[in-house]
Amino acid sequence: MKKLLSLTASVLGDARFALRLLARSPGYALTLLGVLALGIGATTAMFSIASALLLRPLPYRDAEQLTMIWKTHEPLAREWPASIPDFVDYHDRNKTFSKMAAATHDSFSLASDGARAEYVGGVDVTGEFFEVFGVQAVHGRLLGPADDKAGGPPVCVVSADLWRRRFAGDPSLVGRTITLSGRPFTVVGVVQDGFRMGGPYGDRIDVWAPLAVHPTYPEKAQSRGNNHLWVMGRRKPGVTLAEAQADMSAIAAALAAEYPRSNAHRGLNLVDLHEALVGKARPTVFVLFGAVALVFLVVCANVASLLLARGATRRGEMAARAALGATRARLVRQLVTESVVVFGVGGALGALAARWMVGFFADAVRSDVWAANVALGVDGAALAFALGVSLVAGVAFGVVPALATSRVAPQAVLKETAAQAGVSRAQRIARSGLVVAQVAVAFALLVGSGLAVRGFARVASAAPGFDPSGMVVGRLNLPETTHDDDAVLAFGKRLEDELRRSPNAIAVATNSAMPMVGTNSNGWFKIEGRNPWPSGEGPILERNVVSPGYFAAMGIPILRGREFTEADAKDGRKVLVISQTTAATVFPGEDPIGKRIDLGASKDDEWMEIVGVAGDTRRRGPASEPVAEAYVSSRQIPSRWVVVAVRSRSPEASLGEIKDAVNAVDPRLATYSRQRMQDRIDDWTSQQRTATTLLAAFSAAALLLSMVGLFGLVSYTTSQRTREIGLRVALGSTPGAVIGLVMKSGGALVGLGLVVGAALAAIVARALTARLPGVEALDPAIFAAIPALVGASALLACLAPAWRAAKIPPSVALRYE
Amino acid sequence: MTDTDDRALITLSGIEKVFLTDELETHALSDVHLVIERGDYVAIEGPSGSGKTTLLSILGLLDAPSRGRHVMGGREVQGLDARERARIRNRDIGFIFQTFNLIGDLTVAENVELPLRYRDVPAAERRRRVDSALERVQMAHRKGHMPSQLSGGQQQRVAVARAVAGDPAILFADEPTGALDSKTGDAVMDLIGELHARGTTVCMVTHSREYARRAHRAIHLFDGRVVEDVARSVAA
Q: Residue A229 gets which letter from DSSP?
């Protein structure tokens, strides 16, 4: 015990000395701590994000029991929704779930207190929805199985956020009636703070209503082919995911046997809800975490170089300490303690830096994160991580400088100070090794970011298949309760006319599922005169309901035939436009014009004649490949889901005009997602853009740090060779030869760094290819350009010390001590 | 005199020191035989390159001889490892260096305390010894100062305090006045003389004939060999 106390006191004494050293050299301390704070801050911030997304459970009771139940249809998709009859069977037949619920998106126009209608995100949910998540009401009650009865009273639960924002936190809201998309709903409760869950694609939900009270419920409840429910469940305690999977797979097999027309080849794929929500963010998180870790290695190597450089000036002190009785182990312990103190202080500053860095980094993953369900921030675990990283790195990267600095013969204390202050061979080797390591890691990171930039450029420059210039879009939904098919048709015409009246409008069009904007609607189809594909085995077509003139307005070329006109009326011949991919895959080598297709929208055959072939669009984002699409006219088959597009002379003005036009045509309706089309396209690539930008920033920082390290080392070794260089000059060496001499020493280190870095770069490239779209691992341009960039940077780093050496007059050099 | 003689503090027998540099072999010390007794005040003299510093390094266990026998306090020390040599330096030897070798980032008191810390002396005892040592060199009033705030003479007094704070068996001084002006050098030599008068064994390397004369015994080195070892009457 006494020994432990003595050791503690001794270590604390060393720590105090370390702090004093820092305080006495503010420039050195600022450099050291600044570099460390950024390195540890970035690492901690990325850890916070990785921890929140990948390690921390969802903020619900016994969250590990929460399960996402995807319907599958191999090989088309593994993430499909289910129909109401399917869900009822899943719910009633399973033996492994204590609670199971389904949700479907149902955005609302909220009108109340005479205010203009406001869009609010909503879902229709089944009775056990809130029980699945185990959340509580802060006012009133939540929905339960008793509310989810067809023909029951329309009730709803609102989010705490909406309650405060729209209703000023008035508790009397419970029991009051609000109007959602023209339908009256009685608010029965306010759910607990932070709960915005609506399913895997339902983020930031404000209103939950019972599925069974929806007007279309009775019809949909009869159709096993109408898949629109996201199914989630809470497994019974002790039931594993595999056991639940087996249970549910058996149910799917039974349903396939019982209902082959709708359920043949359908399975069920169970995943943890946490994985379903954030799994897609994992590749980006891995890439960025890996990059940050590499930058941190460079930071540590840089700091170790600084400690070594500092150690070179302390050889006299070390010799004196050794002469006074300090053993090598004691000196190493002191130096490592100093390193730990430096890293510890840097870590504390880094933890502060991480608080704002986390928000910045989160933008790189946020589009894949259901932010309302996952809190991103620096918590206790992240602080513990920062502390742990600081201590481990302090020891790991303090040992090499400590061993090198403490390698001093005690008899050196009897020699002149200048001799004591010289650099030892061990220090020189260690510093060279650290510079090589920094160059290698910087090279690998640069290759990685170069590949990412090129990949992003490929994605961002991919033609979307339409012309987004000057175009703005807005979305709205028309409720069945207030708009029958005729009303939808009339609304569409009036809205288009209203928008066309604006002097800003160049062209106006609508689509139920605009590329990169709207929700998708797809299904199987039949071709007249051909045997239908076996149930569930045929190709699917993306369905678009578009207004006459849509293709011209969007700038989508008509490759054959024609597009829709007002002449394609409701009672006329049903016509269809297909995409280029549809023509190529469904009618290879044939002329599709005049052929007829049944999209299966109604129970009876409804043949629609192909009148045109349009160019492909990248429906699912700039990185996506075109899919087979079919277009029908909104004048023949109206759609309640509307995306209105205006090509405008003044896009900013048109954004407001869309809102005003909808309000003028029907004040009960609200628009949402109004934005420029180009911004919408950019949104698809924003995550990759941010990730790429961060990678570029990380690699630039690594390059800068490694070059600072190289500069420091070459400067120092050159100053150590001043006498030798002076002698060479005196003997006739030219300035050019002196510059070459210095450059050669730096060049050797950089060359070695590039060789080591090439192996690391190959690993980085392979990792990126699998995780970022558009990246080609063996991009010759990158593998040629990056070594050149590193070489040029190294040239600059070595030039100053080389130039300084070349300017030394031989007389001064020979007097140099 | 034998190794078991109570008065013999250090005995060197047939000591040689060879430095190897590339293919060159330099004999810094050859066949050195020497006994330093308790209470001696020895001056080691000789021209540059004669081996004075190398001899001091070996005597002070800063370096090990290539050959020969080195006995200190009755114990053979020539084969000890670095750790054990460090322990003996810390407990039994005090050093005064030409360039003081105070640690610039430690206060006067902390510099004096340093060898005691390495010895794991308890804090209260350390404080007592530091105060006592600084009193002896009349630097107690500057204990909180940094070395850079002191004159050269004051720094060397602090170095003397550091050397004696651990109550060593012998004090080695390497050109203790080499970095000082004559007046300050005199004061430091007076201080060393006082320490010897109080019973400290002193072994000093010096170029100065005047200061060498203050010692009771002079060992003259030439080309790495002891060429003269004489007791002398002390100058007044």
A: B
Q: What is the pLDDT of residues A332-345, one digit of tens each?
A: 999 999 999 999 99
In terms of Cα–Cα distance, which of A639, A643, A610 is closest to A527? A610
pLDDT-based confidence at residue A817 (cuts at 50, 70, 90): very low
Summarised one tens digit per residue, pLDDT across range B160-176 is: 999 989 889 899 999 88
> In the numeric block, which tokens belong to residue A321?
């300490």
pLDDT higher than threshold 90 for residue A489: yes
Instruction: Decide if pLDDT at A350 tops 80.
Output: yes
Cβ contacts of residue A112 below 8 Å, gap of 6+?
A166, A178, A179
Question: How many angstroms separate the CA of residue A711 from the nearest CA in chain B?
Answer: 28
Q: How far is Cα A123 from Cα A157, in angstroms, rounded to an integer?
A: 10
DSSP string, B21-60: ETTEEEEEEEEEEEEEETT-EEEEE--TTSSHHHHHHHHT
ipTM over the 0.90 cut-off: no
CA atoms of A356 and A378, how far apart (whole Å):
9
Pairing status of strand B170-174 against strand B201-205: parallel
The overall average pLDDT reported for chain A is 87
| pLDDT of A358 above 70 | yes
Tell me the two tokens of residue A753. Answer: 């760094």
C-alpha angle with apex A252: A250 to A255, nearest 5 degrees? 110
β B8-21/A505-511 pair status: unpaired
Model confidence at B1, pLDDT cuts 50, 70, 90, reads very low
Interface test with B, best of A2, A5, A414 (most B CBs within 10 A): A414
User: Does any CB of chain B come closer than 8 Å to the CB of residue A330?
Assistant: yes
Q: Closest-CA residue in chain A for B106?
A: A17
| B162: closest chain A residue by CA | A324
Comparing C-alpha atoms, which of A198, A218, A16 is closest to residue A101? A198
Subunit contact B62:A414, Cβ cutoff 8 A = yes
Of A633, A598, A626, A636, residue with least CA distance to A612? A633
Q: DSSP secondary-structure letter at A55? A: I
Q: Where are the domains of chain B?
A: 40-64+80-231
DSSP secondary structure letter of residue A80: E
On whether any CB of chain B is under 8 Å from the CB of A11, the answer is no
Domain range list for chain A? 75-264, 483-667
Name the token pair of B23. 């293919």
Class of the CATH domain delimited by B40-64+80-231: alpha beta
Name residues whose C-beta falls within 8 Å of residue A77's C-beta, 6 or more positions apart in sequence: none
What do you get for the CA distance between the two ends of chain A, in Å?
Answer: 50
Which residue is closest to B117 within chain A, CA to CA?
Answer: A10
Chain B contact for A6 (CB, 8 A cutoff): yes
